[in-house]
Amino acid sequence: EAGRPDTIAEDKLRALRAAGVTRVSINPQTLRDSVLETIGRRHTAAQFFDAFALARRCGLDNINVDLIAGLPGDDYEGFCRSLEGVLALSPESLTVHALAMKRASNLVIHRRAEYDGGREAVRMVDASGLRLREEGYRPYYLYRQSRAVGNMENVGWAKPGSEGLYNVYIMDETHTILACGAGAVTKLKQPAGEYIERIFNFKFPYEYNRRFEELTQRKRGIEEFYHRFAGELSAAQGAGGRQAGR
Predict the structure, then answer these.
(1) Model confidence, pTM
(2) What is the SS3 assignment for 26?
(3) 16 lies in the same domain as 55
(4) pLDDT tens column, 156-171
(5) Which residue in 86, 172, 205, 212 is deepest, having the highest Cβ count within 10 Å?
(6) pLDDT tens across 51-75, in order?
(7) Neighbouring-strand partners of residue 157
């Protein structure tokens, strides 16, 4: 999850590539600068294009892009222009999200009436499905978030052979997920049984500075997990790989 274009730098991308990462997600949400400003994002459309080109130069050949339907200040025509701008880059996959309003966000508190119904967002999502199919993309996973505009779902689209198994695993919670970065959550799934242990990273830099020893202790739980279940994990991953290859 390379994430927001304004946080992406060449040294980070090259470090990821050197570590064996083959797929990243770069998320503009929209290519309309006025809408980005309205929702409080610090990047611009130009920064997204620069970040995408940089990722290609760094050897990353499986890039996902996220767009959000139903953003405040956006409209059907604007969303379609954003979609066409992304399609011109020919990313390997594209995820279309319906705007989901967080419980304490200003959208919920001050602008609820504006988003009840979400007819415009429904049009956006429907149009994206038609265009993505025309361009050879296929839907391979979906999920719905609470408080989504128009009660719409988020849909992941990919060119054949570029699907991200991670997206399927994380939705089904059937696989261990190692996460790094601010606010990231590692999920340690025992090979047998339903229990999942979660290790939460701190969200803010000052927490890393003040509570580094606490975080280090949490991370030791990952080592202990792999020592405890090493044999079972290898067998499970081998079976999963064989199944995915069918």
Answers:
(1) 0.80
(2) strand
(3) yes
(4) 999 999 998 888 887 7
(5) 86
(6) 999 999 999 999 999 999 999 999 9
(7) 94, 139
How many helices (H) and strands (E) in the chain?
10, 7
CA of 123: how far to CAs of 12, 79, 127, in Å? 37, 10, 6
Backbone angles phi, psi at 96, to 5 degrees: -105, 115
Q: What is the pLDDT of residue 229?
A: 79
Sheet of 24-29: strand order equals 24-29, 63-69, 93-98, 154-158, 138-143
Identify the pLDDT of residue 55.
96
User: How many other β-carbons are positioned within 10 Å of the β-carbon of residue 167?
Assistant: 20
Residue 234 is part of which domain span?
173-244
3-state secondary structure of 126: helix
Domain boundary, last residue among 127, 144, 171:
171
Low-confidence ranges of the chain (pLDDT < 50): 104, 108-110, 113-114, 116-117, 241-246
Tokens 């470090």 map to which residue? 15
How many domains, in total, are found in the chain?
2
Phi, psi of 194 (to 5 degrees): -100, -5
Q: What is the pLDDT of residue 235?
A: 58
Q: Rounded to whole angstroms, how far apart are CA atoms 133 and 131?
A: 5
d(CA 242, CA 182): 34
